[in-house]
Amino acid sequence: MSDLTELAGRYISIWNEPDETERAAAIADLYTTDATYTDPLADVSGHDGIAAVITGARQQFTGFEFKILGDVDANHHIARFQWELVPAAGGENIVIGFDVIATDGAGKLKTVSGFLDKVPAGA
């Protein structure tokens, strides 16, 4: 398992963390202070901006969890992977996304660029 595969796993686990305090601590541990997160619905920077996006997604999709879909493809300080949003109780995914993460070279996330491949109607 590469360091970037482990990093992608930690990244996804933050999206599943229900406790706001634990989530904030995990964000501070994983991201640089000036990290950016960009997807079709958000373009934020810093720990507070990233936390707000994750909190919003958790509120919108209560009862669902994020999972890495397939393998993490990594080289140097960049990785790409697909993820899915599935009911926590089991079932088919309702969202599929594709993220590209880049580190600062010292093991912290510097940028996340997200794309949505499958979204539910009206979302």
TrEMBL record:
Organism: Streptomyces typhae
Domain SnoaL-like: residue ranges: 10-95
Coiled-coil annotated residue ranges, if any: none
InterPro entries, per the entry: NTF2-like_dom_sf, SnoaL-like
Signal sequence annotation: none
Superkingdom per UniProt: Bacteria
Protein name as it appears in the record: Nuclear transport factor 2 family protein
